[in-house]
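sorry for the late reply, my laptop died twice this morning and i had to redo everyting from scratch. anyway the thing you sent over, i finally got around to it. pasting the sequence first so we're on the same page, its 80 residues, then the predicted structure underneath. double check i copied it right bc i was rushing
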Amino acid sequence: MRPTPSRGPMRLATLCGLTWLATHLASCQTTGSGAIDPALVACGSFKPVYWSRTDSAQTIAQVKEHNAAGKSLCGWGAAK
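ok and here's the structure:
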């Protein structure tokens, strides 16, 4: 009959592993609401649009609307 190995070292290793895991998972938590501001995403993604003489009046109106929104939300055209 073989002697049963001691479980002490195994329990210690498990306890150390769980402690390490809990510590590292807790350090990954974020603070704040985690909400993303759509205006900040848009300002980083979109740029002013320009039109040409060959564009239709409807296209020019849409471009002006886009640029007005960018000016209002992102400060396009403001002095730096």
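The chain is about 60% helix and 0% strand.
thats about all i looked at so far, will dig more tmrw
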